[in-house]
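Design review, sub-item: ligand-bound model
Attendees: FS, YL, KQ
YL presented the inputs for the glutathione complex:
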Amino acid sequence: MMKLYARAGAGSAAIEALLAEAGVPFEMVEVKKPAPESFLKINPLGQVPALQLEDGAIMTESAAMMIYLADLYGFAPKPESPRRPRFLKWLLFMATALYMSDLRMYYPERYSTDVSHAPGIKTKAIADMDREFEILSNGLGEEPFFLGEDFSAADIYAPMLVSWAADVPAVFAKHPNLKTHYDRVAARPRIAEVWKRNGMP
Ligand SMILES: N[C@@H](CCC(=O)N[C@@H](CS)C(=O)NCC(=O)O)C(=O)O
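KQ shared the predicted structure:
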């Protein structure tokens, strides 16, 4: 059985939701903050999510897990599909732009050797997230999902990032399509349960 190293409200929520939606049994291990020394053998960065696969191999990086699990359980277009590039683009955009801006917002003191820089780093991170939500919203457009009619792992990852915004109601007010998408995904009972456990609206 796979083992998901997780923390409520962290990036593990999307992995948990994908596994739940797929109906795959897995074990959850709660990693407290700060991560204990023993966890550094699993992920030297001390970050969740980490995923131990059936053969004992450890995966880190949420986007890698999302793509791997999506391929296994049917939440991604096949490599030869014309929709594959779009799937990879949005998933990686969220993981490398939005997720990273979110980390700068939450841990601004980590991004400079001078702690007095933290407020400016945080303000800029929030501005970056605003711009990135705009890009995400434009990418979704008026389609039901990021791949049009086809639900994919990108639709599981996006609501998690939206829920991390500094001001979620403001994001929804500015981008009603992200709100509609959020609600559409949360209408899936298994995912709704995971969102609830992770304190997501
Ligand atoms: N690039 C990593 C980022 C993971 C990450 O930063 N996780 C956060 C929670 S959302 C964490 O565990 N932070 C604890 C820390 O850095 O001390 C991924 O996508 O999995």
